[in-house]
Amino acid sequence: MIQFENVGLRYGMGPEVLRNVSFQLAPGSFHFLTGSSGAGKTSLLQLLFLAQRPTRGLISIFGQDVATLPRRELPAIRRRIGVVFQEFRLLNHLTTYENVALPLRIRGVHTDEYENNVIELLRWVGLGERLNATPEILSGGEKQRAAIARAVVGRPALLLADEPTGNVDPELAQRLLRLFVELNRLGTTILIATHDRLLMNDFGAPRLVLDNGELEVVS
Q: How far is the C-alpha of 62 from the C-alpha of 162, rounded, in Å?
């Protein structure tokens, strides 16, 4: 599903923040992405959800070379990718329910087809009483859960999550991880960026470890 070959990335004329990164993610796999602060995790995720193009090297996603793909063809690929951002990126003028349902509305899915599923998902992540709340009155943990629900509601082919359990307690973190595990069981490829060693040790999935812009795969 994903292939990186000798990928490098620099911003402007600065030094490379990623160097000679090579790895593959098979369809339906589950990996953690880890490394110290400033190691390049966010930059790698930006390449994966097509917010950046590599300075050099090959990136193939869903069998397409996205490093050279025309920009007009990128949105079709992005629609197959769910992303949980650290900064949440919820729309302040929409309710929690409307934010989570937004990816389905964009696809043209009728309300009758998704309403019950969205409500059930929000209840599962503990937001059943916050359906009509707007983001400015949600806590950080509630925003995090809403962002996760929005990312998974359409059962994406690929899910990228940047510190998805960083604003919740350990018990809820385990519950959210079970949601990712279930999504993975249904066929979604999962890549979770995290510093949480306990979470990684409890689950035991392979790790992509970034160190100063270089990557090592640890089984």
A: 21
